[in-house]
Amino acid sequence: MPWTHRRAISALAVGVIATGVGCDGSASHGAYRAPPSPSPNHSPAHAPSPKPDPVGSRRIVAYYGAGSQTPALGVLGHGAPETAWARLQRQAAGYATPAHPVQPAFELISSVANATPGPDGMYRTRQSADVIDRYLRTVRRHRGLLILDIQPGRANFLPEAQALRKWLRQPDVGLALDPEWRMAPGQVPGKQIGSVSAAEVNVVSGWLDQLVAGHHLPTKLFLLHKFRSTMVRGESELINRPHLHEVVNMDGFGTQKEKLPKYRDFAAATNFDMGIKLFYKQDVGLMTPEQVMGLDPAPEVIDYQ
C-alpha cells in the first residue's frame, strides 16, 4: 500500500514535541474498564479502582495522532482533546452492538520518529509528561482508554516502553508498537520502511505482561501495527501473553481493493486478534462501519487517522 505520504508528514514533528517522559507512579488495581471520572487535575498515578469488565467484551474505536500540537500526524491532533473526543464518540457510535459495546480510545504517539537524529542520535522525540497527562485526563473524564504508541526511530522498543512505565501501570492505558518507524543502524525515518523482529516484540510484551501481573492490573491492550508482511520478522514466533490482549493492527492506506486482501492475509498469519486502521484523507472509498464489521474476522480495534 502507499506509505510515502504518511512517512513524509512524520518528519514535520521535528522540534515540535518536547522531550522527557517516564517517572514511576504508584500502582492502582482493578479491571479493564476505565475508572470513574476524576477531577481534571487528578494524578494518573492515583486512578480510582474501576469495576470489572472482561477483556474482549468491547470493540475499541480509536483516534490516532500526536496531539493538537502536531495536527499533521493524525486526526487526534485536530482540535483540543475534548473536541477530538466529541468527534470520536460520534464515529464510534456506528460500531456499537449488543454483543460488543464500544470503547472509545485515544491512540497518542508517545515517541515520534524524526528525520533528524536529535541530541541522543535516536531519530525520535518523546512526548512531554504534560501532553500525555492532558490526553489521559480527557480519557478519564469519559471512562475511555488511552493507547500510547511508539515510533522508536533508531531506539529499541523496550526502553521506549519502559519510559512510559508511569502510565502503563494504570488500568486504562494500553501500548502500541509501530515497526514502520523502527530503524536499523544507518536508516532514517522517512527514507526507509522499518521493521522489527519477533524476538524484540516478545521482549516488550514479556516486560508488559510482568508489569500487569505484578501490579494486579486488568488485561492490557497490546497493539502491533503493520502494513507489510515483512514488517514483523519471524511473526510466527510471537508469544501470546496471559495478561495482554494482543492485536495485529493492519495499517496503511489505499483502496478497498488493496486493503481487503491484505487484511485477510494478515488475519491468516497471526494468532492474535485483528484490528484495522482507516484514513479519512488518504483512503480511497473509506470503509463504512457496516463494511468494517463485515470483515472476517471482525476487527477488535478500529483505528482512525
Q: Your description of this structure?
A:
This protein is of the alpha/beta class. Helix content is 26%, strand content 20%. It has 8 helices and 11 strands.
Descriptors for this entry?
single chain; 305 residues; alpha/beta; two-stranded parallel sheet; 8 helices; 11 strands; 20% strand; globular; disordered N terminus
Can you give me a brief rundown of this structure?
With 305 residues, this protein is an alpha/beta fold.
Walk me through the topology.
Blueprint: H1 4-10, E1 59-65, H2 81-92, E2 102-113, E3 124-126, H3 129-141, E4 145-150, H4 157-162, H5 165-168, E5 173-177, E6 196-197, H6 198-214, E7 220-226, E8 232-233, E9 244-250, H7 256-269, E10 273-278, H8 289-293, E11 301-304
Parallel strand pairs: 1-2, 1-11, 2-4, 4-5, 5-7, 6-8, 7-9, 9-10, 10-11
Antiparallel strand pairs: 2-3
